[in-house]
Amino acid sequence: MSDSGSDVKVALSTSSVYPESTAAGFEIASLLGYDGVELMVGIDPLAADVDAVERLRDYHQMPVVSVHAPCLLITQRVWGTDPWVKLERATEAANQLDADLVVVHPPFRWQRSYATRFVEGVRELADRSGVRIAVENMFPWRAPGGGDFKAYRPSWDPTDLDYDHLTLDLSHAATARQDSLELVRRWDDRLAHVHLTDGNGSAKDEHLLPGQGNQRADEVLEELSRRGYAGHVVLEVNTNDADRGGREEALDTALAFARRHLNQVKGAA
Questions:
Q1: At what angle do helices 83-97 and 50-60 cross, to 10 degrees?
Q2: 142-164: burial string, b at 16+ Cβ within 10 Å, e else
Q3: HEC per residue, 134-186
Q4: Which of 86, 145, 225, 269 has its CA 20 to 30 A from that of 46?
Q5: 173-223 per-position pLDDT tens digit
Q6: Tell me, what DSSP letter sits at residue 208?
């Protein structure tokens, strides 16, 4: 791996084109010159049909670099309701799509049996499937009357837990009032995956374009390049309010930002 960041793949999360479809995510990623996509399972029915996603991958010649397991509140019934079954199916999808990593959130506190052996179970499933599972940093939910609600177990912050691989989401760090650059340094070799986005620290998980918030996204990318980071950088941003033209412009700008601060020539692999 070069220390220039030139070998890092910059991919587009299919959630970044919402409310457009998974198919639109592949189309836009190909059009703008992304290196691949991250499949957000559950964004629409097609995203949960792995055979259909495989056909999209082959049609657009756009690799799937990672699979985001359906662990959001709005995807709790995608692939059933058993969280271990859902995570196992995510690893199976990754193997079928030739993706090398699955992103998963920590359990919700009400998923008690899942949470009890989550740390050990993630490692066992990763070993069994041959797919890296990178646990994503989340944030405390802020109660309307003030104070925080601890929605995740064992914790929304994976830093001090015994996970082999971690996903850094800059918007989540902003909402948690953390410093993404510091997390890069603290996590060191456990950092396996990055969701490039931004936020200003509000209670809302903003998923701004990188550079629009307080997370020093430019410095994060430059630090990744300096450290010889060997994972993927995935644009996971909110373009809900844009039309197709505005969405493409925003995602093209975000791609240029990533390539510039990773010291990549635009369009390079």
A1: 30
A2: eeeeeeeeebbbbebbbeeeebb
A3: EEECCCCEECCCCCEECCECCCCCCCCCCCCCEEEEHHHHHHCCCCHHHHHHH
A4: 269
A5: 999 999 999 999 999 999 999 999 999 998 889 999 999 999 999 999 999
A6: B
CB-based contact 142:122 (threshold 8 Å): no
Are the beta carbons of 149 and 141 closer than 8 angstroms? yes
| CB proximity list for 192: less than 8 A, separation 6 or greater | 101, 132, 134, 165, 166, 167, 231
Strands 148-149 and 141-142: antiparallel
Tell me how far apart the alpha carbons of residues 190 and 108 are, in angstroms, rounded to a whole number: 23
pLDDT, one tens digit per residue, over 221-234 is 999 999 999 999 99
DSSP 3-state assignment of 61? Answer: coil
Quickly count: other Cβ atoms within 10 Å of residue 244's Cβ: 12
